[in-house]
């Protein structure tokens, strides 16, 4: 049974201060339509710019995860993102009137309680999952960081931390399913070492810290004078070191709360992949930088898997949707510059075309005649002509229009194409056509192998009847 996408039933807000900026902010979770995903909106900036919660938008991981887009930035997004995953949501718009999410109590539980208070709304469209197809690994040998994602029909986490601290020691945490997140992980708070706290205080880096939202691990000898100084800074009557080796501002919720919080951070950072995952994630000594790098590696694997899925198995004996004569009724191109022989599929969002590469092509007379290779620029032109069929199918009189290509990006030639090969091109709209401009992702395959791919932008332009090529 397919799982449907989910959003929240109504808006709900939380208020607090940003840990690093000290800014008082209101974060409002809003329902969002299908396929919207997770997005932030800076309501305090002109135009209220949107920032997609995407690992490609990460601009800083020094003291939390910061994302930036459209001239706006949102800092410390990881706890909010973890709460959305823990609530099993798909589509939420988060309006924020400041540069950083509120730290709350240093965990994700208060965000989850706010989301629970308004309820969950099931939507009509099926959820998309990415199931880890094979082991995906990431390492940083100098920091002894190791992360691996393994195939599993669930979302499971195992995390180990080791800071070479006699107080903290080596800790492990894990959940066998994301369904355990709220009970086992959500309430686990952020932590820091005393030497880090002192450095951050001296450099004004935790303007919103008040010892109610972080566990402070005492990793050095500390005098009564130093404790009194900290008590004065944070408006406490007294400060002591608890038997667990932490400041006595709070009690641990779990003996291994730091490891559980690192797991929370990892779930939040991996939410920036942009799709629900199925797999077992095992991590040793993770941090925000490593988490984001690993998220990008998973995103690259998703892209690769999608490219594999575009291959089209076809029977050459089956009558095509359009043969070459019908193609010439749509496209203005003619031999020797018509590079599409058949159209196999055509919908409102995609098209599949075929190019049979033969030694009779004119360009083989001069393009490596002793070792003929189908030129890459002509592969792109053939892909563009395939995309032109898709664009021209949106008008009733295609003979009176031209498709002019405005931009080609991210071109990759992955294998040689030789005489005798048959290339199947598939072009998919990357977003709806607006004002006559189409953006497409094109892939060319020989058999089951990708040989070329590119992203293209084209504009459809009407020409006078008398100028139409016939």
Describe the 3D structure:
With 470 residues, the chain is α+β, with helices and mostly antiparallel strands. The protein has 3 domains: 4-187 and 258-306, Ribosomal Protein S5, domain 2; 191-252, no CATH class; 324-462, Roll (Thiol Ester Dehydrase, Chain A), CATH 3.10.129.10. 21% of the residues lie in helices and 33% in strands. The chain is built from 9 helices and 24 strands. The protein has helices at 78-86, 109-118, 181-184, 194-202, 224-233, 257-270, 288-309, 324-328, 376-392; strands at 4-8, 12-17, 24-31, 38-42, 50-52, 58-60, 66-69, 72-74, 92-96, 120-126, 129-131, 136-140, 145-150, 155-162, 170-175, 191-193, 215-217, 276-284, 342-346, 350-356, 401-413, 422-434, 437-446, 449-462. The strands form 6 sheets. Strands 11, 12, 13, 14, 15 and 18 form a 6-stranded mixed β-sheet that branches. A 6-stranded antiparallel β-sheet has the order 19-20-22-23-24-21, covered by helices on one side. The protein has a 5-stranded mixed β-sheet with strand order 2-3-9-4-5, with helices on one face. A hairpin with a 6-residue loop joins strand 2 (12-17) and strand 3 (24-31). Helix 1 packs across helix 6 (257-270) and helix 6 (257-270) packs parallel to helix 7. The protein is elongated. Mean pLDDT is 88; it is low at 466-470. Its main location: cytoplasm. This is Multifunctional fusion protein.
